Amino acid sequence: MQQRRWFIALLTLLTITGCSTSFSYRFADTYLEWQLAKYVDLSGQLEDEVSASIDALHQWHGQTQMPRYRDFLDRLIAEIEKPELSREDLYVYSFQVFDFWHSLRMQIEPLAQAYLPRLSLEQQAMLIERLNERLEEKREENKEALADPEAQLDELYDAAEEWLGALTAEQRALLKDAYNAAEQDDSAWIAYQQRWLTVFTETLLRPNAADFEANVQMLMTSPEQLQSDALTQQREANRERTISLLVALHQQLTPKQKRHLQRKLQDYRDTVAAIAEDYVI
């Protein structure tokens, strides 16, 4: 599954653009949307303050980040016209994507510092319960995916066709080889998520602890340090394979596929630009 994730992330850049006015803000690598009301029943002054902070976060994102995404997509659209796409180019783009994501993490972290200590015991319990439920859903999804690898491969084909149009036999073979070479078991990633949730739970329940602020900062801005060495190596290997795959696919793109991909990216670029315009002061 990680091979498919990397392919989709690098090809579509949806991890950083969102590309809709309902952009989801997420707690670090846990994919917890920055919408406490989805997980916790809020009321009174806390609800009002959280709502105001989310509005301010959207304002910051629209004014400062959407223009960055727009310019980034402009570069990608132009890049497709090149006869070759180098590994170095893709690495640069992947680092830029991480920088976008890191900027968002840094903006969210003060909000976590401000509001997590103010949750009641009941709200804390509700948040922890729902995060555990969500993690259990991920475990079940991983089991189902491992039980039906053909379905996962079909999803990879579908993702590629959404962005490129109809695939050639050679392109399908490339995707299949890359899929078969990648680690599909997400157990190591889920174990990392469990470690994150364990530390998060311990931190949430001790808001007056001396290390509360430091722990929240780590959880929000640098949770990768909770990854095992095996997971770090696995993710890097899958990224290497995906970059190789994208370089090879780019070489095989037909003129029609290039136009299809450029139109798709242009649609996202125009959406991002429109959102940025909405936030111009």
Give a topology summary.
Layout (H helix, E strand, L loop, with lengths): L1 H11 L1 H4 L8 E2 L4 E2 L2 H4 L4 H36 L7 H29 L5 H27 L1 H16 L4 H13 L5 H18 L7 H10 L7 H24 L2 H24 L3
Antiparallel strand pairs: 1-2
Helix pairs in contact: 1-7, 1-11, 4-5, 4-12, 5-10, 6-9, 8-11, 9-10
Overview features:
281 residues, mainly alpha, 1% strand, globular, coiled coil, Lipoprotein, UCP028200
Describe this structure in words.
- There is one protein chain.
- The chain has 281 residues and is an all-alpha fold.
- The protein has one domain (2-278).
- Helices cover 77% and strands 1% of the residues.
- It contains twelve helices and two strands.
- It has helices at 2-12, 14-17, 36-39, 44-79, 87-115, 121-147, 149-164, 169-181, 187-204, 212-221, 229-252, 255-278, and strands at 26-27, 32-33.
- It has a two-stranded antiparallel ribbon.
- Strand 1 and strand 2 (32-33) form a beta hairpin.
- The termini are far apart.
- 25% of the residues are buried.
- Residues 1-34 have low confidence and may be disordered.
